[in-house]
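Morning. Coffee machine broken again, so started the prediction first thing and wrote up yesterday's gels while waiting. Chain of 553 residues, entered below exactly as on the submission form.
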Amino acid sequence: MIEGSDYLYLTMVKDMIGDLPVDSNRQREMSGYSSVGETGQFSVFMTEEALVNEEVFITEEALQQPVGISKIVDNPPIATSKAECESPSRTRTDSLVSEHGSEPLPGTQDSSLVSEPDAGPTAPNSPSFLPEPAPQLEPPRLPVCGSSDKQLPGIARNPRFRKSCFFKATVRSGALDWDTYNHMLLPRRYDWYDNPNEEYEHLKSHVCIWDVAAERQVEIIGPDAVTLVELMSPRPLGDMKVGQCRYAIVIDDDGMVLNDPVVSRLADDRFWFSGADGDLVLWAKGLAIGRSLNVRVFEAAVSPVALQGPKSTALVADLFGDWVWDLKHFHFEQVELDGMPIALARSGWSPEVGYELYLQDESRGDELWDRLIEAGNKYVLRPGCPNQKRRIEGGMLSYGLDMGSQHSILELGLPPSWVGAPGKCKAAEFVGKQALQRLHEAGGPSRRVVGLELCGKEACCAMEDSRKIFAKHAPDGESDEVGKMTSLTFSPALDAWIAIGTIGRDAAEPGTEVSVETPDGPRSALVRKLPFLPRAAMLPRPEAPQPNRRNSI
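Came back before lunch.
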Protein backbone atom coordinates (compact mmCIF):
# COMPACT_ATOMS: atom_id res chain seq x y z
CA MET A 1 0.00 0.00 0.00
CA ILE A 2 1.37 3.38 -0.96
CA GLU A 3 1.24 6.02 1.74
CA GLY A 4 -0.26 9.38 0.98
CA SER A 5 3.11 11.06 1.22
CA ASP A 6 4.68 8.70 -1.35
CA TYR A 7 4.92 9.51 -4.99
CA LEU A 8 5.58 7.59 -8.14
CA TYR A 9 8.56 8.46 -10.28
CA LEU A 10 8.38 7.44 -13.89
CA THR A 11 9.52 8.29 -17.35
CA MET A 12 6.64 8.53 -19.77
CA VAL A 13 6.44 8.45 -23.54
CA LYS A 14 5.71 11.89 -24.92
CA ASP A 15 2.29 11.05 -26.31
CA MET A 16 1.16 9.75 -22.90
CA ILE A 17 1.15 13.33 -21.60
CA GLY A 18 1.08 15.40 -24.77
CA ASP A 19 -2.70 15.83 -24.78
CA LEU A 20 -3.29 16.50 -21.09
CA PRO A 21 -5.36 19.69 -20.70
CA VAL A 22 -3.86 22.30 -18.43
CA ASP A 23 -6.02 23.38 -15.51
CA SER A 24 -4.79 26.82 -14.54
CA ASN A 25 -6.98 26.81 -11.43
CA ARG A 26 -4.92 23.99 -9.93
CA GLN A 27 -1.46 25.39 -10.55
CA ARG A 28 0.78 25.01 -7.52
CA GLU A 29 3.15 27.84 -6.83
CA MET A 30 6.07 25.79 -5.56
CA SER A 31 9.72 26.53 -6.07
CA GLY A 32 11.07 24.62 -9.07
CA TYR A 33 7.82 22.86 -10.01
CA SER A 34 4.94 23.67 -12.30
CA SER A 35 1.78 21.85 -13.25
CA VAL A 36 1.73 20.74 -16.86
CA GLY A 37 -1.65 19.07 -17.03
CA GLU A 38 -4.69 17.41 -15.54
CA THR A 39 -6.26 14.08 -16.30
CA GLY A 40 -8.87 12.23 -14.29
CA GLN A 41 -8.15 12.56 -10.58
CA PHE A 42 -4.51 13.54 -10.65
CA SER A 43 -2.22 16.34 -11.67
CA VAL A 44 1.10 16.07 -13.49
CA PHE A 45 4.03 18.15 -12.23
CA MET A 46 7.50 18.61 -13.70
CA THR A 47 10.68 20.38 -12.71
CA GLU A 48 12.63 22.44 -15.23
CA GLU A 49 15.07 19.55 -15.50
CA ALA A 50 12.22 17.08 -15.84
CA LEU A 51 10.72 19.11 -18.65
CA VAL A 52 13.91 18.62 -20.61
CA ASN A 53 14.25 14.95 -19.70
CA GLU A 54 10.54 14.16 -20.03
CA GLU A 55 10.53 12.83 -16.46
CA VAL A 56 7.18 13.10 -14.76
CA PHE A 57 6.13 13.01 -11.09
CA ILE A 58 2.50 12.14 -10.41
CA THR A 59 0.47 11.71 -7.28
CA GLU A 60 -0.82 8.52 -5.68
CA GLU A 61 -4.12 8.71 -7.57
CA ALA A 62 -2.22 7.85 -10.74
CA LEU A 63 -2.42 4.22 -9.69
CA GLN A 64 -5.97 4.31 -10.95
CA GLN A 65 -4.75 5.20 -14.43
CA PRO A 66 -3.24 2.72 -16.99
CA VAL A 67 0.13 4.40 -17.43
CA GLY A 68 3.64 2.96 -17.57
CA ILE A 69 5.32 3.03 -14.16
CA SER A 70 8.95 2.11 -13.72
CA LYS A 71 9.47 2.24 -9.97
CA ILE A 72 8.04 3.64 -6.76
CA VAL A 73 10.26 6.20 -5.11
CA ASP A 74 10.21 6.50 -1.35
CA ASN A 75 11.10 10.18 -1.18
CA PRO A 76 8.39 12.39 -2.63
CA PRO A 77 9.81 15.09 -4.93
CA ILE A 78 6.94 17.49 -4.23
CA ALA A 79 6.80 18.67 -0.64
CA THR A 80 3.87 20.08 1.25
CA SER A 81 5.63 23.17 2.52
CA LYS A 82 7.64 25.89 0.86
CA ALA A 83 10.67 25.07 2.98
CA GLU A 84 10.64 21.49 1.81
CA CYS A 85 10.20 22.61 -1.76
CA GLU A 86 13.46 24.54 -1.74
CA SER A 87 15.56 21.37 -1.73
CA PRO A 88 13.48 18.48 -3.02
CA SER A 89 15.15 15.09 -3.02
CA ARG A 90 14.49 12.10 -5.23
CA THR A 91 15.93 8.80 -6.23
CA ARG A 92 16.66 8.46 -9.90
CA THR A 93 15.72 5.20 -11.63
CA ASP A 94 16.12 3.82 -15.10
CA SER A 95 12.99 3.87 -17.20
CA LEU A 96 11.40 0.66 -18.30
CA VAL A 97 9.50 2.54 -20.97
CA SER A 98 11.29 3.44 -24.19
CA GLU A 99 11.06 7.04 -25.23
CA HIS A 100 8.90 8.11 -28.11
CA GLY A 101 11.07 8.51 -31.19
CA SER A 102 13.74 6.05 -30.07
CA GLU A 103 12.93 3.76 -32.96
CA PRO A 104 13.43 4.69 -36.63
CA LEU A 105 10.45 5.48 -38.79
CA PRO A 106 8.87 2.45 -40.47
CA GLY A 107 10.70 1.60 -43.63
CA THR A 108 13.83 3.51 -42.62
CA GLN A 109 15.54 1.24 -40.13
CA ASP A 110 17.90 0.07 -42.80
CA SER A 111 21.36 0.36 -44.13
CA SER A 112 20.06 3.07 -44.86
CA LEU A 113 22.25 5.52 -44.02
CA VAL A 114 19.27 7.69 -44.87
CA SER A 115 18.93 11.44 -44.96
CA GLU A 116 15.99 13.61 -44.01
CA PRO A 117 13.00 12.12 -45.87
CA ASP A 118 12.52 13.91 -49.13
CA ALA A 119 10.41 16.76 -50.23
CA GLY A 120 9.33 16.84 -53.81
CA PRO A 121 9.70 19.53 -56.47
CA THR A 122 9.01 23.11 -55.63
CA ALA A 123 6.50 23.31 -58.45
CA PRO A 124 4.24 21.54 -57.96
CA ASN A 125 4.81 21.36 -54.26
CA SER A 126 5.17 17.88 -52.86
CA PRO A 127 4.77 16.85 -49.24
CA SER A 128 7.71 16.38 -46.98
CA PHE A 129 8.80 12.81 -46.70
CA LEU A 130 8.85 13.23 -42.93
CA PRO A 131 5.53 11.95 -41.53
CA GLU A 132 3.62 14.19 -39.16
CA PRO A 133 5.21 13.92 -35.71
CA ALA A 134 3.24 12.61 -32.78
CA PRO A 135 2.04 15.23 -30.30
CA GLN A 136 4.89 16.26 -28.04
CA LEU A 137 5.17 18.12 -24.77
CA GLU A 138 7.86 20.69 -25.38
CA PRO A 139 9.65 22.43 -22.54
CA PRO A 140 9.14 26.14 -22.00
CA ARG A 141 11.76 28.63 -23.22
CA LEU A 142 13.17 26.15 -25.72
CA PRO A 143 16.68 27.35 -26.59
CA VAL A 144 17.39 28.28 -30.18
CA CYS A 145 18.64 25.40 -32.33
CA GLY A 146 22.40 25.47 -32.71
CA SER A 147 23.02 26.67 -29.16
CA SER A 148 25.08 24.45 -26.93
CA ASP A 149 22.18 23.89 -24.53
CA LYS A 150 19.47 23.13 -27.07
CA GLN A 151 17.01 20.39 -26.30
CA LEU A 152 17.90 17.12 -28.00
CA PRO A 153 15.19 14.76 -29.24
CA GLY A 154 14.45 11.71 -27.12
CA ILE A 155 16.41 9.34 -29.33
CA ALA A 156 19.61 11.35 -28.78
CA ARG A 157 19.19 11.17 -24.99
CA ASN A 158 18.57 7.43 -24.93
CA PRO A 159 21.71 5.72 -23.57
CA ARG A 160 20.77 2.49 -25.34
CA PHE A 161 22.15 4.00 -28.55
CA ARG A 162 25.88 4.67 -28.67
CA LYS A 163 27.07 8.09 -29.70
CA SER A 164 29.93 8.55 -32.10
CA CYS A 165 33.14 10.37 -31.29
CA PHE A 166 31.81 13.18 -33.52
CA PHE A 167 28.45 13.45 -31.72
CA LYS A 168 29.12 16.64 -29.74
CA ALA A 169 30.61 18.25 -32.83
CA THR A 170 27.50 17.44 -34.87
CA VAL A 171 25.30 18.98 -32.17
CA ARG A 172 27.41 22.15 -32.30
CA SER A 173 27.05 22.07 -36.08
CA GLY A 174 23.26 22.07 -35.85
CA ALA A 175 22.17 18.42 -35.92
CA LEU A 176 18.44 18.22 -35.19
CA ASP A 177 17.55 14.56 -35.44
CA TRP A 178 19.10 11.12 -35.65
CA ASP A 179 18.37 7.59 -36.85
CA THR A 180 19.72 4.40 -35.31
CA TYR A 181 22.30 2.39 -37.23
CA ASN A 182 24.40 -0.46 -35.90
CA HIS A 183 23.15 0.35 -32.38
CA MET A 184 24.49 3.90 -32.78
CA LEU A 185 23.12 7.32 -33.64
CA LEU A 186 23.39 8.55 -37.21
CA PRO A 187 22.53 12.23 -37.92
CA ARG A 188 19.65 12.63 -40.32
CA ARG A 189 18.91 16.38 -40.41
CA TYR A 190 20.64 19.72 -39.72
CA ASP A 191 19.32 23.20 -39.04
CA TRP A 192 20.98 25.08 -41.90
CA TYR A 193 18.43 23.99 -44.49
CA ASP A 194 14.62 24.07 -44.51
CA ASN A 195 14.06 21.65 -47.39
CA PRO A 196 15.96 18.45 -48.29
CA ASN A 197 16.34 19.83 -51.81
CA GLU A 198 18.75 22.42 -50.41
CA GLU A 199 21.01 19.72 -48.96
CA TYR A 200 20.81 17.79 -52.24
CA GLU A 201 21.85 20.80 -54.32
CA HIS A 202 24.67 21.64 -51.93
CA LEU A 203 26.01 18.08 -52.14
CA LYS A 204 26.00 18.29 -55.93
CA SER A 205 27.61 21.74 -56.09
CA HIS A 206 29.99 22.00 -53.13
CA VAL A 207 31.00 19.57 -50.37
CA CYS A 208 29.31 18.09 -47.29
CA ILE A 209 30.72 16.50 -44.15
CA TRP A 210 28.94 13.44 -42.74
CA ASP A 211 29.29 11.70 -39.41
CA VAL A 212 29.17 8.06 -40.58
CA ALA A 213 30.93 6.55 -37.57
CA ALA A 214 27.95 4.20 -37.25
CA GLU A 215 29.52 2.29 -40.15
CA ARG A 216 31.45 0.09 -37.75
CA GLN A 217 34.57 -1.75 -38.86
CA VAL A 218 34.64 -5.50 -38.28
CA GLU A 219 38.34 -6.32 -38.15
CA ILE A 220 39.60 -9.76 -39.17
CA ILE A 221 43.26 -10.44 -38.48
CA GLY A 222 45.40 -13.55 -38.25
CA PRO A 223 46.93 -16.41 -40.26
CA ASP A 224 43.50 -17.60 -41.50
CA ALA A 225 42.14 -14.12 -42.27
CA VAL A 226 42.04 -14.70 -46.04
CA THR A 227 40.18 -17.98 -45.56
CA LEU A 228 37.51 -16.33 -43.44
CA VAL A 229 37.17 -13.31 -45.71
CA GLU A 230 36.68 -15.57 -48.74
CA LEU A 231 34.07 -17.62 -46.87
CA MET A 232 31.90 -14.56 -46.29
CA SER A 233 31.18 -13.50 -49.88
CA PRO A 234 30.94 -14.94 -53.41
CA ARG A 235 33.05 -12.03 -54.67
CA PRO A 236 36.81 -12.76 -54.77
CA LEU A 237 38.50 -10.90 -51.90
CA GLY A 238 41.72 -12.80 -51.22
CA ASP A 239 43.42 -11.31 -54.28
CA MET A 240 42.94 -7.71 -53.14
CA LYS A 241 46.07 -5.63 -52.80
CA VAL A 242 46.91 -3.80 -49.59
CA GLY A 243 45.29 -0.37 -49.89
CA GLN A 244 42.38 -1.62 -51.99
CA CYS A 245 38.64 -1.68 -51.17
CA ARG A 246 35.83 -3.76 -52.67
CA TYR A 247 32.08 -3.74 -52.31
CA ALA A 248 30.93 -7.26 -51.44
CA ILE A 249 27.68 -8.98 -50.51
CA VAL A 250 27.78 -11.28 -47.48
CA ILE A 251 25.34 -14.20 -47.85
CA ASP A 252 24.05 -17.13 -45.79
CA ASP A 253 24.00 -20.81 -46.73
CA ASP A 254 20.90 -20.28 -48.92
CA GLY A 255 22.51 -17.44 -50.86
CA MET A 256 20.37 -14.80 -49.12
CA VAL A 257 21.77 -11.35 -48.34
CA LEU A 258 23.08 -10.75 -44.81
CA ASN A 259 25.00 -7.50 -45.30
CA ASP A 260 26.73 -5.42 -47.98
CA PRO A 261 30.02 -4.09 -46.57
CA VAL A 262 32.95 -2.37 -48.19
CA VAL A 263 35.98 -4.58 -47.55
CA SER A 264 39.42 -2.98 -47.14
CA ARG A 265 42.74 -4.81 -46.99
CA LEU A 266 45.14 -3.23 -44.51
CA ALA A 267 47.80 -5.98 -44.56
CA ASP A 268 48.26 -9.46 -45.94
CA ASP A 269 46.49 -10.88 -42.89
CA ARG A 270 44.28 -7.94 -41.87
CA PHE A 271 40.92 -6.73 -43.25
CA TRP A 272 38.13 -4.33 -42.34
CA PHE A 273 34.49 -4.97 -43.20
CA SER A 274 32.67 -1.62 -43.13
CA GLY A 275 29.22 -3.03 -42.53
CA ALA A 276 25.67 -1.88 -43.12
CA ASP A 277 23.06 -1.88 -40.37
CA GLY A 278 23.34 -5.39 -38.91
CA ASP A 279 25.37 -7.47 -36.50
CA LEU A 280 27.97 -8.52 -39.06
CA VAL A 281 30.59 -9.13 -36.36
CA LEU A 282 28.49 -11.97 -34.92
CA TRP A 283 28.28 -13.75 -38.28
CA ALA A 284 32.02 -13.43 -38.79
CA LYS A 285 32.73 -14.71 -35.27
CA GLY A 286 30.39 -17.64 -35.78
CA LEU A 287 32.12 -18.69 -38.99
CA ALA A 288 35.55 -18.36 -37.40
CA ILE A 289 34.57 -20.46 -34.40
CA GLY A 290 32.63 -23.02 -36.41
CA ARG A 291 35.53 -23.53 -38.83
CA SER A 292 38.19 -23.42 -36.07
CA LEU A 293 40.04 -20.66 -37.89
CA ASN A 294 43.12 -19.01 -36.43
CA VAL A 295 41.89 -15.41 -36.52
CA ARG A 296 40.70 -12.61 -34.26
CA VAL A 297 37.34 -11.03 -35.10
CA PHE A 298 36.25 -7.84 -33.31
CA GLU A 299 34.82 -4.38 -33.78
CA ALA A 300 37.75 -2.04 -34.34
CA ALA A 301 37.92 1.31 -32.54
CA VAL A 302 37.68 3.17 -35.84
CA SER A 303 35.22 5.93 -36.78
CA PRO A 304 34.82 7.20 -40.34
CA VAL A 305 33.79 10.72 -41.29
CA ALA A 306 32.89 11.41 -44.92
CA LEU A 307 33.56 14.35 -47.22
CA GLN A 308 31.29 14.13 -50.26
CA GLY A 309 30.76 16.43 -53.23
CA PRO A 310 32.65 17.86 -56.22
CA LYS A 311 34.89 20.10 -54.10
CA SER A 312 35.91 17.28 -51.75
CA THR A 313 39.06 16.43 -53.71
CA ALA A 314 40.43 19.97 -53.51
CA LEU A 315 39.64 20.10 -49.80
CA VAL A 316 41.33 16.77 -49.06
CA ALA A 317 44.31 17.77 -51.23
CA ASP A 318 44.71 20.93 -49.14
CA LEU A 319 45.01 18.73 -46.06
CA PHE A 320 47.15 15.87 -47.34
CA GLY A 321 48.81 16.92 -50.58
CA ASP A 322 48.45 16.99 -54.35
CA TRP A 323 48.80 13.17 -54.57
CA VAL A 324 45.12 12.94 -53.50
CA TRP A 325 44.11 13.81 -57.07
CA ASP A 326 45.65 10.51 -58.18
CA LEU A 327 44.01 8.32 -55.55
CA LYS A 328 41.80 5.82 -57.38
CA HIS A 329 38.22 5.07 -56.48
CA PHE A 330 37.97 2.34 -53.81
CA HIS A 331 41.62 2.71 -52.78
CA PHE A 332 43.02 4.13 -49.56
CA GLU A 333 46.24 5.34 -47.94
CA GLN A 334 47.32 5.37 -44.30
CA VAL A 335 48.03 9.02 -43.41
CA GLU A 336 48.25 11.42 -40.48
CA LEU A 337 46.69 14.81 -39.89
CA ASP A 338 48.07 16.77 -36.96
CA GLY A 339 49.21 13.45 -35.51
CA MET A 340 45.78 11.80 -35.93
CA PRO A 341 46.08 8.35 -37.58
CA ILE A 342 43.66 8.10 -40.51
CA ALA A 343 42.96 5.65 -43.32
CA LEU A 344 41.99 7.98 -46.17
CA ALA A 345 39.78 6.22 -48.74
CA ARG A 346 38.25 7.52 -51.93
CA SER A 347 34.79 6.15 -51.25
CA GLY A 348 31.43 7.07 -49.76
CA TRP A 349 27.73 6.26 -49.84
CA SER A 350 26.86 8.59 -52.70
CA PRO A 351 27.50 8.75 -56.45
CA GLU A 352 29.39 12.01 -55.94
CA VAL A 353 33.17 12.16 -55.75
CA GLY A 354 34.03 11.71 -52.11
CA TYR A 355 36.36 10.49 -49.39
CA GLU A 356 36.04 8.71 -46.08
CA LEU A 357 38.52 9.42 -43.29
CA TYR A 358 38.71 6.42 -40.95
CA LEU A 359 39.88 7.94 -37.67
CA GLN A 360 41.88 5.42 -35.64
CA ASP A 361 42.05 7.50 -32.45
CA GLU A 362 38.46 8.04 -31.36
CA SER A 363 39.52 10.35 -28.51
CA ARG A 364 40.18 13.01 -31.16
CA GLY A 365 36.82 13.03 -32.94
CA ASP A 366 36.00 16.61 -31.96
CA GLU A 367 39.42 17.75 -33.09
CA LEU A 368 39.16 16.10 -36.50
CA TRP A 369 35.66 17.44 -37.15
CA ASP A 370 36.65 21.01 -36.27
CA ARG A 371 39.81 20.74 -38.37
CA LEU A 372 37.78 19.67 -41.39
CA ILE A 373 35.19 22.39 -40.85
CA GLU A 374 37.93 25.01 -40.67
CA ALA A 375 39.68 23.75 -43.80
CA GLY A 376 36.36 23.47 -45.63
CA ASN A 377 35.24 27.05 -45.18
CA LYS A 378 36.80 28.11 -48.48
CA TYR A 379 34.85 25.32 -50.23
CA VAL A 380 31.48 26.15 -48.60
CA LEU A 381 31.56 22.96 -46.53
CA ARG A 382 28.27 22.15 -44.78
CA PRO A 383 27.27 19.31 -42.42
CA GLY A 384 24.89 16.80 -43.90
CA CYS A 385 23.73 13.19 -44.00
CA PRO A 386 23.84 10.34 -46.51
CA ASN A 387 21.49 11.74 -49.12
CA GLN A 388 18.37 9.82 -50.15
CA LYS A 389 17.91 11.56 -53.47
CA ARG A 390 21.47 11.09 -54.68
CA ARG A 391 21.75 7.47 -53.59
CA ILE A 392 18.51 6.55 -55.42
CA GLU A 393 19.61 8.44 -58.54
CA GLY A 394 22.87 6.49 -58.34
CA GLY A 395 21.06 3.15 -57.95
CA MET A 396 22.64 2.50 -54.55
CA LEU A 397 20.61 -0.11 -52.68
CA SER A 398 19.89 0.34 -49.01
CA TYR A 399 20.36 -2.80 -46.91
CA GLY A 400 17.27 -3.53 -44.82
CA LEU A 401 15.12 -1.49 -47.20
CA ASP A 402 15.78 -2.32 -50.86
CA MET A 403 17.43 -5.63 -50.06
CA GLY A 404 17.86 -7.89 -47.07
CA SER A 405 17.57 -11.43 -45.80
CA GLN A 406 14.53 -12.00 -48.02
CA HIS A 407 16.60 -11.32 -51.15
CA SER A 408 18.88 -13.69 -53.02
CA ILE A 409 22.15 -12.13 -54.11
CA LEU A 410 21.18 -13.08 -57.68
CA GLU A 411 18.28 -10.60 -57.60
CA LEU A 412 20.53 -7.55 -57.20
CA GLY A 413 21.80 -7.27 -60.77
CA LEU A 414 25.49 -7.59 -59.84
CA PRO A 415 28.30 -8.73 -62.20
CA PRO A 416 28.57 -12.54 -62.68
CA SER A 417 31.93 -12.81 -60.90
CA TRP A 418 30.41 -11.23 -57.78
CA VAL A 419 27.59 -13.77 -57.47
CA GLY A 420 29.23 -17.12 -58.22
CA ALA A 421 27.85 -17.44 -61.76
CA PRO A 422 28.84 -20.53 -63.80
CA GLY A 423 32.22 -19.99 -65.42
CA LYS A 424 32.82 -16.92 -63.23
CA CYS A 425 32.65 -18.50 -59.78
CA LYS A 426 35.79 -18.19 -57.69
CA ALA A 427 37.66 -21.34 -56.72
CA ALA A 428 37.78 -20.47 -53.03
CA GLU A 429 35.10 -21.94 -50.80
CA PHE A 430 32.33 -19.61 -49.58
CA VAL A 431 29.10 -20.00 -47.63
CA GLY A 432 26.14 -20.49 -49.97
CA LYS A 433 28.16 -21.72 -52.94
CA GLN A 434 26.09 -24.87 -53.53
CA ALA A 435 22.81 -22.97 -53.13
CA LEU A 436 23.81 -20.43 -55.78
CA GLN A 437 24.90 -23.17 -58.15
CA ARG A 438 21.49 -24.84 -57.82
CA LEU A 439 19.70 -21.53 -58.39
CA HIS A 440 21.79 -20.79 -61.49
CA GLU A 441 21.04 -24.27 -62.88
CA ALA A 442 17.30 -23.74 -62.26
CA GLY A 443 17.29 -20.68 -64.50
CA GLY A 444 18.20 -17.89 -62.11
CA PRO A 445 16.14 -15.75 -59.74
CA SER A 446 12.40 -15.24 -60.10
CA ARG A 447 12.66 -11.55 -59.11
CA ARG A 448 14.91 -8.57 -59.77
CA VAL A 449 15.64 -5.29 -58.03
CA VAL A 450 14.88 -2.52 -60.53
CA GLY A 451 14.32 1.19 -60.89
CA LEU A 452 10.88 2.71 -61.36
CA GLU A 453 9.90 6.05 -62.86
CA LEU A 454 6.44 7.18 -61.84
CA CYS A 455 4.31 8.84 -64.50
CA GLY A 456 3.31 12.42 -63.80
CA LYS A 457 4.73 14.96 -61.39
CA GLU A 458 1.93 14.95 -58.85
CA ALA A 459 3.14 14.94 -55.27
CA CYS A 460 3.60 11.56 -53.59
CA CYS A 461 2.80 10.90 -49.95
CA ALA A 462 5.53 9.81 -47.59
CA MET A 463 6.46 6.13 -47.65
CA GLU A 464 5.98 4.60 -44.22
CA ASP A 465 6.21 1.06 -45.60
CA SER A 466 6.76 -0.72 -48.87
CA ARG A 467 4.05 -0.34 -51.50
CA LYS A 468 2.65 -2.96 -53.83
CA ILE A 469 3.45 -3.03 -57.54
CA PHE A 470 0.85 -4.46 -59.92
CA ALA A 471 1.04 -5.69 -63.50
CA LYS A 472 -0.70 -3.30 -65.86
CA HIS A 473 -2.65 -6.08 -67.54
CA ALA A 474 -3.10 -9.37 -65.68
CA PRO A 475 -4.88 -12.47 -67.03
CA ASP A 476 -8.43 -12.92 -65.74
CA GLY A 477 -8.62 -14.72 -62.43
CA GLU A 478 -4.95 -14.20 -61.56
CA SER A 479 -3.48 -11.94 -58.94
CA ASP A 480 -1.80 -8.97 -60.57
CA GLU A 481 0.62 -8.13 -57.73
CA VAL A 482 4.15 -8.46 -59.08
CA GLY A 483 6.37 -6.78 -56.50
CA LYS A 484 7.07 -4.13 -53.87
CA MET A 485 8.35 -0.55 -54.12
CA THR A 486 10.81 0.13 -51.29
CA SER A 487 12.36 3.59 -51.87
CA LEU A 488 10.93 6.73 -53.45
CA THR A 489 12.13 10.27 -54.07
CA PHE A 490 11.68 13.20 -56.40
CA SER A 491 14.77 13.72 -58.56
CA PRO A 492 15.34 17.37 -59.49
CA ALA A 493 17.94 16.25 -62.03
CA LEU A 494 15.45 14.01 -63.85
CA ASP A 495 12.41 16.12 -63.02
CA ALA A 496 10.59 12.94 -62.08
CA TRP A 497 9.56 10.73 -59.18
CA ILE A 498 11.91 7.76 -59.13
CA ALA A 499 11.92 4.65 -57.00
CA ILE A 500 13.57 1.30 -56.33
CA GLY A 501 11.61 -1.91 -56.00
CA THR A 502 11.71 -5.69 -56.27
CA ILE A 503 9.60 -7.08 -59.08
CA GLY A 504 8.84 -10.42 -60.72
CA ARG A 505 11.11 -11.40 -63.58
CA ASP A 506 8.33 -11.30 -66.19
CA ALA A 507 7.66 -7.62 -65.45
CA ALA A 508 11.26 -6.55 -64.82
CA GLU A 509 12.35 -5.60 -68.32
CA PRO A 510 13.14 -1.89 -68.74
CA GLY A 511 10.22 -0.03 -70.30
CA THR A 512 7.57 -2.36 -68.87
CA GLU A 513 4.53 -0.43 -67.66
CA VAL A 514 3.29 -1.28 -64.16
CA SER A 515 0.99 0.27 -61.58
CA VAL A 516 2.16 1.37 -58.13
CA GLU A 517 -0.03 1.46 -55.04
CA THR A 518 -0.28 4.91 -53.39
CA PRO A 519 -2.57 6.37 -50.70
CA ASP A 520 -4.22 8.37 -53.50
CA GLY A 521 -4.86 5.33 -55.64
CA PRO A 522 -2.92 3.43 -58.34
CA ARG A 523 -0.26 5.31 -60.26
CA SER A 524 1.38 4.24 -63.51
CA ALA A 525 5.14 3.71 -63.61
CA LEU A 526 7.79 2.44 -66.01
CA VAL A 527 10.51 -0.03 -65.11
CA ARG A 528 13.98 1.52 -65.50
CA LYS A 529 17.47 0.11 -65.38
CA LEU A 530 19.64 1.09 -62.42
CA PRO A 531 21.39 3.43 -61.95
CA PHE A 532 19.20 6.28 -63.10
CA LEU A 533 22.25 8.54 -63.41
CA PRO A 534 25.98 7.74 -63.73
CA ARG A 535 28.54 8.46 -61.03
CA ALA A 536 29.69 12.10 -60.98
CA ALA A 537 33.08 12.84 -62.50
CA MET A 538 35.95 14.43 -60.61
CA LEU A 539 36.54 18.12 -61.24
CA PRO A 540 39.69 18.96 -63.24
CA ARG A 541 42.94 19.17 -61.30
CA PRO A 542 44.11 22.75 -60.72
CA GLU A 543 46.75 23.86 -63.20
CA ALA A 544 49.27 24.75 -60.52
CA PRO A 545 49.89 21.63 -58.38
CA GLN A 546 49.87 22.11 -54.64
CA PRO A 547 53.04 21.29 -52.70
CA ASN A 548 53.18 17.58 -51.90
CA ARG A 549 52.62 17.42 -48.18
CA ARG A 550 51.92 13.73 -47.98
CA ASN A 551 52.27 12.44 -44.43
CA SER A 552 52.06 8.69 -44.87
CA ILE A 553 52.48 6.46 -41.87
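Residues 365-376 form the longest helix (12 residues). Going to sketch it on the whiteboard this afternoon.
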